[in-house]
Design a protein that fits this description.
With about 70 residues, the protein is α+β, with helices and mostly antiparallel strands. The protein is built from 2 helices and 5 strands; from the N terminus they run H-H-E-E-E-E-E.
């Protein structure tokens, strides 16, 4: 849980999704990107809304991605 919530304590904090082995689906942000990034059972939803990008969320149950400007 701590690893998923806080990420690694050293190194590149954007790399942890590639190492994630949990069963729980994890949606996270804080590292703005122009596109949604799916890696294993995780998705980065930070698509830069603050910087003129989109506000992004997954919609249950199929995890369809929804974005608004």
């Amino acid at each position: 849980r701590d690893f998923a919530v806080f990420g690694p304590t050293a190194g590149d904090p954007t790399k942890w999704p590639g190492d994630y082995r949990g069963d729980a689906f994890v949606a996270y942000g804080h590292y703005a990107r122009p596109d949604v990034r799916w890696r294993k059972n995780t998705v980065c939803l930070d698509t830069g809304c603050l910087y003129g990008g989109h506000l992004t969320t997954p919609r249950d149950p199929a995890l369809e991605i929804v974005q608004i400007e």
